[in-house]
Design brief:
113 residues, mainly beta, 2 helices
Amino acid sequence: MEHEINILVVEPGRPPRPARVDYSLETFLQIVGGELAMGCFLPQRVMLLYNEDASRQGLPPNRCNPFVNEWISGTFLLCGLSDGEGFCFLSPAEQEDTRHFNKWKDHISLSNY
């Protein structure tokens, strides 16, 4: 692979897992299973990439996004946002900063992120 980055993959019903993936649109599309939609959480500068049509495709609910008061369905990923360079890796410290994703019962909110 030409260029790889460290991300977190968040699947429905599972805690986030770190992954090292090819930095390509095709890889991101494959992980989320469809067309990409995204949001940025500042000041953490973490990007949330998810399947824009996951609900219409009947994918299971994953986490609640309180910013739009809707569920994110299907698998999504978290990566860093660099200055003018697009997406970048999540450092081990940034990955650890998402530990609240591991403390959930049915679904959790991104509101503390």
